[in-house]
């Protein structure tokens, strides 16, 4: 906690000294809150420096904001849209890049907002990207988003996608922006995975030959056709191996990520905020000779990388064919060393 406060103070001081040097003087917007009396002075530049906040008291229409931001491509400083009544933020459609190293990018508690709809946004540089508390929001609609990160060391971005509509979902492309960035270690995400597009042959809801991303849980049991998972790289759900005749998990040699952020991976009638259900459980049968998955890089859950690995028949891994430490290495040899993990409910 103390370290975090010192980090934020350091970043704030660094930004205050340098941020607005990135803009021409006529492209700097000093007021923190955008309101009806100052919107006329918002710069017409493609790159604007401003700690920009819009809320219920801004007294601005969607049309006014669309006109004010029509030339805006890069925002340097920060962005907060909170307690507003807009159904989306498409008035920022021209925006492609947000540079807010020491400020959050926060779109929260907007009671009527159903999506972001920033269809040209590719890059968000911030220590905290939060889209939370928007009770009607069901999708992000950020189709071009590629990077969410922060540039100042030792900053590592925090992702918060929490407490939106119970049907809120992210596409697999949006999820991969966060999942594949190992610098993002803290996830506060409660989201389903949006229904895969029918023409996307690499994404499936049931294992099939050629599928690379499975939306749903994977169960490997008797007479399982291993060819259906040979190409699999990402599981958005849990992994269960029981009653199979496999000696090892070499069929999952291409698997790199297992991710479960609530929604799809929970039981059908379970509350989404039950932390026990949000942890992905990797269950391995006791006669498996090796549980090594050669390319597994990360198991991520909305409970900060928490992983609970148990045997289906209460077999204690440390008394089996491999030691607890060996199993830990087999599963996590490529994952961040600070990722919490346990075996049979115990830490190695």
Automatic annotation (TrEMBL):
Q: Which residues form the signal peptide?
A: 1-17
Keywords of the record, alphabetical order, are:
Signal
Q: Which residues form a coiled coil?
A: none
Q: Say yes or no: keyword Calcium present.
A: no
**Cross-referenced Pfam families, in alphabetical order?**
Recep_L_domain
Q: Known InterPro entries for this protein?
A: Rcpt_L-dom, Rcpt_L-dom_sf, SPS2_domain
> Can you give the residue ranges of the Receptor L-domain domain?
44-138, 210-301
Q: Which PANTHER family match?
A: RECEPTOR PROTEIN-TYROSINE KINASE (PTHR21662:SF59)
State what protein this is by name: Receptor L-domain domain-containing protein
